[in-house]
Amino acid sequence: MIELNNVSKTYGTGRDAVHALKGVNLAIPKGAIHGVIGLSGAGKSTLIRCVNLLERPTQGTVTVDGQEITRLSNTALNQARHRIGMIFQHFNLLTTRNVFDNVALPLELMGQPRRDIRDRVSPLLEMVGLSDKADQFPAQLSGGQKQRVAIARALASNPRVLLCDEATSALDPQTTSSILELLRDINHKLGITILLITHEMEVVKSICHRVGLISNGELVEDAVVGDFFTAP
Ligand code: ADP
Ligand code: ADP
């Protein structure tokens, strides 16, 4: 479902060059929840940004849902991104829009009619448990509720893949658990493949099937979660 083939990413050139990713190979099957852990600066964000092509790799290819996205034109890329949802540490909600309109945003950008948007947004809000908050603004919500809105928005375009960039790092442990529970549910019910990056071992232990360790731009280990944590 997600495949990285010898992916490298270098920022800058010459003396200022930063080799953020070095020949990363990764294959995540459909329906998996795959974690990538690593210290700050290891290259986790760069990895995830290469998968939805917020960055283009310097070298190598990325394939999502059978399509090699690395070679796409910018227009084709915008189409391909509809199949990739993403959530962030700081939620990235639009403060001037209420909950409903935040979730509706991707559908508006796709040019969907208002009626279809309403039919799509209401069940999404129900799924994330925020049906009664549709008219509230982000400033009126808790961190966990904001992330639920972001999850609903990420799912609006019916993606096959959900990318989570430190999605629980700004949340307290109890809220983290409830968000992880929701992600597990989404994976289970909708069959969405999840790639999540985090510096928190507990997150990986609690929901990932497999986990990779990234260090200095290299994916140095990739194993089933049980094996990973019981390894000598
Ligand atoms: P992580 O998410 O694991 O903290 P990043 O992928 O953000 O790691 O960063 C990997 C390396 O690339 C770091 O050395 C970081 O400073 C560098 N880096 C990240 N983004 C940029 C950028 N836009 N320009 C230059 N260097 C960058
Ligand atoms: P911008 O950086 O374009 O001004 P934001 O960072 O506020 O916009 O992004 C608005 C939201 O749109 C993001 O939080 C994210 O959920 C979604 N989004 C933006 N770019 C992408 C992308 N490449 N893939 C998936 N979702 C995206």
From TrEMBL:
Where is the ABC transporter domain positioned along the sequence? 2-232
Where is this chain primarily localised?
membrane
What membrane topology does this protein have? Peripheral membrane protein
Any one GO MF annotation of this record: ATP binding
Parent-record interval covered: 1 to 232 of 347
User: Keywords of this protein's UniProt record, alphabetized?
Assistant: Amino-acid transport, ATP-binding, Cell membrane, Membrane, Nucleotide-binding, Translocase, Transport
Recorded protein name is Methionine ABC transporter ATP-binding protein
The question of whether Cell membrane is a record keyword is answered with yes
Q: Where is the signal peptide?
A: none
The subcellular localization recorded is: Cell inner membrane
